[in-house]
Specification:
- A four-stranded mixed β-sheet has the order 2-1-3-4.
- By secondary structure, it is an alpha+beta fold.
- Strand 3 and strand 4 form a beta hairpin.
- The chain contains seven helices and four strands, in the order βαβαααααββα.
- The protein has a single domain, classed as Glutaredoxin (3-Layer(aba) Sandwich), CATH 3.40.30.
- Belongs to the ArsC family.
- This is Arsenate reductase.
- It comes from Pedobacter yonginense.
Length: 115
Amino acid sequence: MKVYGIPNCNTVKKSLDWLKANHIDFEFHDFKKKGITTEKLNEWCNTFGWDTVLNRKGLTWKKLSKEEQAKIDNQDLAIAYLLENTSAIKRPIVENGGKAILIGFDDDKYAQTLA
């Protein structure tokens, strides 16, 4: 199991705490430090939808003007933006066997998917 995120994010902290409390082994990938690839972003966008992978609730997105936000209207443009602004990736993203299975944190979804 691999968890992608940034360590100072509260949602990531909740996810990691849940995994530890449920004795689930995982590897953590800090995409602020280790980066992320175009291929990985494409995989996630194909699994969850680019509109879900792009975190529109975060400060990074909100710093953009309405005009700049409006220009990001498809997967290719979203991925280009996310490569430059990794903190705008919705997090955490959990993979099992190299396949993305969860995005964000929801106690019930984690229990259903990982139990």
